[in-house]
Amino acid sequence: MSQQPNLQPTAPAVRDSILDTATPVPEAGVVPREQLARARVLVVGDVMLDRYWFGDVNRISPEAPVPVVHVQRQEDRLGGAANVARNAAALGAKAGLLCVVGHDEPGERIVQLLGDSGVDPYLERDPALPTTIKLRVLSRQQQLLRVDFENLPAHEALLAGLARFDALLPGHDVILMSDYAKGGLTHVTKMMEKARAVGKPVLVDPKGDEWERYRGATLITPNRAELREVVGQWKSEADLLVRVTKLRAELDIAALLLTRSEEGMTLFTNDGVLHASAVAREVYDVSGAGDTVIATLAVMLGAGRPLVEAVSLANRAAGIVVGKLGTATVDYDELFHSH
Known about the structure:
alpha/beta; 10-stranded mixed sheet; 4-stranded mixed sheet; 14 strands; disordered N terminus; D-beta-D-heptose 7-phosphate kinase
C-alpha cells in the first residue's frame, strides 16, 4: 500500500490482533428462499430521497468562479430507512416501512419507489414537513455538490406513527430501527420497550452519542466513527473489548456488531468476540453498505437463522454492495450463488 510509511508503527499489530483475539466467523451455507420469504421485518426510521443530477461541465459561470453543470439525467433512489427496507425486500423477505414523509413531490416519489421495490409502506404524511432530500450534482462520476433539504416532523405525525407501530408489531418478527437523526425516531425508546415486552428482537443502526435511548437492543450495528462518539478512541483491540463490554452492560445491549469498512466486522456478545474479514473489492463505495448489513441481519434473524450465521451473510452482502456505485441492494442469487 502506498500509504504504509505514514501509518503508525503499531497499526499492523493492532490489525493483526483483531484476528489474534477474535474467533473467525464460520462461513454460512445457503438459506432456502422459502425461509427468507417467511421473514417479516418492520423498518422504522428516517426516510429520505437520494436525488442525483448528472451532467457535463464545459465552462465556468460568468457570475461567479463556479462550474456550470448542464444537467442531462436525473436519478432518484430511496435513502435512509427506505433503503434499508428496500434491501430487506430485495432478499425476498416481507418488509414493512413505518416513517413520516411530507405531502410533496419527493414524498410522492418515495411512495412510488417503495411500490417498485415491493416494500409495504406505512407512511404518516405531515403536510408541514418538506420530505428530506439529499441532492447530489455529479459530473464524470465526480460529486461536485450536495444540497440537503430537511426539517423535523411534527409532534402529531410522530404520535400517529407510534400508534401505528402498536398495530404493526404483532405482524412482524424483527423490528429494525434505522436512525439518521432526522427526528423520525423521537419515540424509539417506547417502541423498543413495546417490542421487547412481546419478545421481538430489535436491531438498531444508531446515530449520535445518546445511546440511552437504545437501551435493551438485541443488536446494535455502529461503524467505527459512530462507536468512537460513544466510547471514545480505543488504543488496542483489548481496550476496545473493555469499552464495548462496559457499554453493553450499562445499556443492556445483547450484541454489538462493529462494521469496520476494509477491516470487515467484529461481533461482541457474552459468548466472546467473532471477526469476519472484509471481501477485497476493486470498487469500494461504502455509501449505503451499513443499510445492506443491518437489513441482511434482520432478514436472517427473521428467518430463524442464528446470529453468527446472519453476521457471516451480512459480511458477504457488504462485500457485494461496496462493489456497486451509490446506494444499492443485493438479491438472493447474488448473495448465495455469486461467490
